Amino acid sequence: MQITDSQLDVASLAALGAEALALLGSGNVDALAQRFGYALAYGADPAIAIQADLTSSLASVGATSLGQGGAAHIPTVRYCNPNEAGLLAVVQAMAPTNNGKAILVELVVTARGNDTHITLEQISDAA
């Protein structure tokens, strides 16, 4: 998803991370894939790849679904040193599961020329 320079502050990036968590938590994987894409899709349909990684991550922590309700998990934002890959920041959030554990949801912010994007990087177990 393309973003503007005004969305590069911590609050804006955290809000985008929270939006991704909300879409994932509501089961709206298609909207999540459409809005943020999926870096680990490797040419597959992003929604199918997200669902497969979600299923794998849940199994890895012994859960069967994402948790309902509970305390909001505020995403953290880490900025990166300038690098050749154009990586500007990483947004990390923990999605609670139905067994009290959590899985990690990561988004990356990249820049190439004047274009800045935030993309769902991965969904994985938190270990």
Please, could you describe this protein's structure?
This protein has helices at residues 10-25, 29-36, 46-60, and strands at 2-3, 76-79, 87-96, 102-112, 115-125. It has 127 residues and is α+β, with helices and mostly antiparallel strands. It has one domain. The chain has a 5-stranded antiparallel β-sheet.
Give a brief description.
The chain has about 130 residues and is of the alpha+beta class. The protein has one domain (about 1-125). Helices cover about 30% and strands about 30% of the residues.
Distance between the termini: 28 Å
Order of neighbouring strands in the sheet with most strands: 1-5-4-3-2
Provide the succession of SSEs.
EHHHEEEE
Radius of gyration: 14 Å
Structure annotation, total helices: 3
Largest β sheet strand count, sense and barrel closure: 5 strands, antiparallel
User: How would you name the oligomeric state of the polypeptide chains in this document?
Assistant: single chain
Structural class: alpha+beta
Helix content: 25-40%
Shape: globular
Count up the domains: 1
Mean pLDDT level:
92
Beta-strand content: 25-35%
Say how many strands there are: 5
